[in-house]
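Reopening this one. Same input as before:
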Amino acid sequence: MALNQIDGLLLDMDGVLSVSWRPLSGAAAAVGRLRASGLALRVLTNTSARSRAEIGAELRRQGFGFADEDVLTASQFAAAYLRSAHSGARVFLLGDARVEDLDGVRLVGLDDEPDVVLVSGPDGSFAFETINRVLRSLLEGAALVAMRRNLTWMTSAGECLDAGAYLLGLEGASGRRAVVTGKPAPGCFVAGLEELGMPAARVAMVGDDIENDVLAAQAVGITGVLVRTGKFREDKLATASGRPDHVIDSIVELPALLGC
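Same output, byte for byte:
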């Protein structure tokens, strides 16, 4: 793909724009330059600990200038999927997702015999007793839906286990394969294209996770740009299942890559 044909960008947040809610050096200026060049921008994040509105407000505080509507989250996609595929179902939410982003989803406790278990980001609820009761719900027939498969995420203290590590255990123990609504699910990237109003050939995805951000986007025809910030590691690049279209040191280099 000739990069001068790119008109829209999907930007991962954690590890690309910021780490632990602290903007990376030069990232806000780079986003401003991209926007000034006429590119359409959307933030595509699996972050669920804060609501869409809270993420938008925090990005503006950091100087990025995104409207709430520019932020696309795994919680949004999960709610849309559940409204469509499990309308009216009793859903148990495991993890940190915010209720306000799950419009139209009927949330219940584990004692209410949920029809669906929805896994979001790990928090204190990921305790043995709760996970074990979730497993029993799955064995009794509940469907398994997850917002992400990420094994780790980057914080200022270093990499931490993410929901994907627990999801692997639940899938293996229950024999059920989760429906994933956020990255790396193809539908997540398709939704991003629909928000931009552009075909995949005119869009690039920028991320620090080679598998879940970059190669997953490339699988639906989006140009992939991997940044060497956040949780990027050279060994993961060397052993990845494919090759990114482009690798840059940080988002600061993206305007030059795109000829802005």
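So the earlier flakiness isn't reproducible anymore. For the record, The chain is about 35% helix and 20% strand.
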